[in-house]
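S2.1 Query sequence (Large ribosomal subunit protein uL29)
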Amino acid sequence: MKATDVRAKTLDELRTDLEGLKKEQFNLRFQKATGQLENTARVRQIRRDIARIQTIMREKRVSANA
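Output structure tokens follow.
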């Protein structure tokens, strides 16, 4: 997921994407704990996507209040 793609979305779309990513992150952590995780790089990718969405959501909120 690229930052330009994220910036093009509305806050509601970002919230739903964030919710989906957090669910996926939970599932990946569960797979890791049970030894079923195959793609370990996906954990890092999800974590960074969550941070990217949260950062852009904050930017949008700050610019809306200014």
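The mean pLDDT is 95. The chain is about 80% helix and 0% strand.
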